């Protein structure tokens, strides 16, 4: 049947819209305005594959981080291996940063289509151009807010985490839709030889577009290789100058990383200082309270009488930096047992800090029962620096830094704060 509603829809969408007079066809709109043969379907598709992989990995690792901080029942996050979150979040930030030069390269290959003539050939072209607007807008927004956030600069009024999360869904949805809509062009672009000369999907005679060409039509091997090398160099430069924030052997060249593993009090970066958190006068009256059938109220001397454990564990900030250190303190499980609670009790850990989003975190059963989860009083053989959470901080394996609560004063059964 060709007379159904789909056929009618095709007719409406394919209808030719009235074009503007040709005298307006100047500058970038004129025929042949974009001379480089590298504005090709082939470059667009091949760059798109790298960009698509970077986006997919970035999305999945970002979703992982989100699900740890706002847990869903179907997503259990284990306490081992201790380095897993360090890998997923390091990858999230690294792929997001690498996507910035890739997106610029991709936009360069396709931007002549911005000036296609006539600007709105048919309703279906209008829809497809609007969908590209959403794609470019959401991707750019996502990469920019991520970048600005790891630089700890908040020039906007909205809450970064929620915005970044929802824009992530919009961006990945737009990518999926784009890949679907462009499937034939991607197939042509990825084929060993393109169909030389044809301007696929565009009206005949339309020159300011992305060409379907083969290797030879791209101007030969030299410009193509130079283009690929420049794109690769851009990605390598961004990665090499930042990835040392979590990969300490590369720290010496990480000149663009906001934080470095070895830099900070006691050789460890700090996210929130004691001064900014308003925790500056911890005195001899400090107590760690553990609620339970046998409520504990422990001074630092009482804590020192519990078995002391030392664990080498990383702090992994969601912002991408991470660093390992040796932490000494009392097992959370030992304190829970002393308070008459099972060792795998879900608990909230509360800070002396009175405000802020991260003063309370939830420790889920896998982390509560882990023998490596400590209420630490020492770092690399010395008492904690105030900025690292003196007198007591939580340190658990395989947990986002934002949930490694500092200046801890109370542990109570139940869920609350971040991780609840
Ligand atoms: N009470 C409290 N604990 C906190 C924070 C905070 O703002 N308040 N920031 C968290 C974040 S975001 C990180 S990355 C780690 C960093 O620990 P560090 O400053 O000792 O390196 O502390 C976490 N613990
Ligand atoms: Mo953090």
Q: Your description of this structure?
A:
About 3% of the residues have low confidence. The chain folds into two domains: 209 residues, Fumarate Reductase Cytochrome B subunit; 145 residues, Sulfite Oxidase, Chain A, domain 2 (Alpha-Beta Complex). It is of the alpha+beta class. The two termini are 55 Å apart. A hairpin with a 5-residue loop joins strand 1 and strand 2. The chain is built from eleven helices and ten strands. It binds the ligand Nc1nc2c(c(=O)[nH]1)N[C@H]1C(S)=C(S)[C@@H](COP(=O)(O)O)O[C@H]1N2 and molybdenum atom. The ligand Nc1nc2c(c(=O)[nH]1)N[C@H]1C(S)=C(S)[C@@H](COP(=O)(O)O)O[C@H]1N2 binds next to loops.
Features of the shown structure:
420 residues; alpha+beta; five-stranded mixed β-sheet; five-stranded antiparallel β-sheet; 11 helices; 39% helix; 2 domains; Fumarate Reductase Cytochrome B subunit; binds molybdenum atom; elongated; Sulfite Oxidase, Chain A, domain 2; single chain; binds the ligand Nc1nc2c(c(=O)[nH]1)N[C@H]1C(S)=C(S)[C@@H](COP(=O)(O)O)O[C@H]1N2
Short synopsis of the structure:
With 420 residues, this protein is of the alpha+beta class. Helices cover 39% and strands 12% of the residues.
């Amino acid at each position: 049947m060709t007379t159904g509603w789909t056929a009618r829809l095709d007719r409406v969408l394919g209808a030719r819209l009235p074009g503007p007079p040709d005298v307006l066809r100047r500058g970038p709109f004129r025929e042949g305005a974009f001379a480089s043969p590298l504005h090709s379907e082939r470059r667009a598709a091949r760059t798109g594959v790298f960009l698509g992989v970077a986006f997919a990995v970035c999305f999945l690792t970002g979703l992982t981080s989100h699900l740890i901080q706002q847990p869903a029942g179907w997503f259990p996050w284990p306490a081992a291996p201790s380095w897993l979150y360090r890998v997923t979040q390091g990858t999230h930030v690294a792929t997001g940063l690498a996507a910035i030069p890739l997106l610029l390269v991709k936009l360069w290959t396709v931007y002549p289509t911005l000036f296609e003539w006539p600007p709105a050939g048919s309703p279906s072209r209008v829809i497809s151009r609007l969908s590209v607007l959403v794609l470019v807008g959401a991707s750019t927004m996502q990469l920019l807010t991520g970048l600005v956030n790891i630089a700890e600069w908040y020039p906007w009024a909205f809450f970064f985490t929620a915005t970044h999360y929802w824009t992530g869904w919009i961006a990945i949805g737009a990518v999926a839709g784009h890949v679907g809509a462009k499937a034939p062009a991607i197939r042509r672009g990825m084929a060993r030889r393109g169909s030389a000369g044809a301007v696929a999907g565009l009206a005949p005679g339309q020159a300011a577009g992305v060409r379907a060409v083969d290797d030879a039509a791209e101007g030969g091997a030299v410009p193509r290789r130079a283009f690929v090398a420049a794109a690769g160099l851009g990605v390598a430069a961004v990665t090499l100058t930042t990835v040392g924030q979590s990969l300490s052997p590369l720290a010496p060249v990480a000149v663009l990383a906001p934080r470095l593993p070895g830099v900070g009090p006691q050789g460890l970066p700090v996210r929130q200082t004691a001064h900014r958190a308003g925790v500056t006068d911890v005195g001899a009256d400090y107590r760690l309270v553990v609620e339970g059938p046998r409520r504990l109220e422990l001074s630092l001397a009482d804590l020192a009488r519990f078995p002391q454990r030392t664990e080498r564990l990383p702090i992994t900030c969601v912002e991408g930096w991470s660093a390992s250190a040796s932490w000494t303190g009392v097992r959370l499980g030992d304190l829970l047992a002393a308070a008459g609670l099972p060792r795998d009790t879900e608990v909230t850990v509360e800070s002396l800090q009175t405000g802020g989003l991260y003063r309370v975190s939830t420790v889920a059963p896998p982390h509560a029962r882990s023998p490596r989860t400590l209420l630490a009083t020492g770092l690399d053989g010395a008492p904690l620096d105030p900025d690292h959470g003196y007198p007591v901080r939580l340190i658990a394996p395989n947990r986002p830094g934002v949930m490694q609560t500092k200046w801890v004063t109370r542990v109570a059964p139940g869920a609350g704060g971040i991780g609840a």
